[in-house]
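Input for the complex:
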Amino acid sequence: MVIEWVLLGAGIAILVGIFMLLSRVYLGPTVFDRILATNAMGTKTVIFLALLGFISKRPEFLDTALAYAIINFVSTIAILKFVEFKKIG
Amino acid sequence: MHWTDIATALFLGLGCVIAVTGSMGVIRLPDFYSRLHAAGKTDSLAQALIMVGLLFQTWKYEGLILNAAARLVLITMFILVTSPIATHAITKAAYLHGLEPWRKEKSRDA
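Predicted:
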């Protein structure tokens, strides 16, 4: 089937994007560059998990993707608060 | 080939092009405030396009159609709300921290 190769190609493209962002996390001159790239990586991970569910014909992976989206948002806000105020809470 | 497969291929292709372009912009652009453009906007759009593309595939799963479709819509709505909020929070934190925007004349002098 053609559609499986389309899904696989999309997954590989998203992985390439994740590794490009990972190089910015490694290089980034300021801490905010690193946080920004990590946030974008988290969004691309959610996309990749959704694609993985349809590649392996098990859409139950979407639960994991939803949980990862929530964790990504909360962790970004928490890291920013820690960087800005040096404490959480 | 069913017509939903063609729709999926179109949406996934467009979404992947936008996602890889955004990642390339995060690598190549010169400073933090211009990298925000590449990361913040392309993320929401590519994610929405890919989720719409996957939405055309849900009819193949018997008994899970509503389940998978509802979750795809839920993830799309959640990221469309939270991704701009996170980007705005990062920008505001960087601005309050005192990060200087990049200028062409300044880099030419240096």
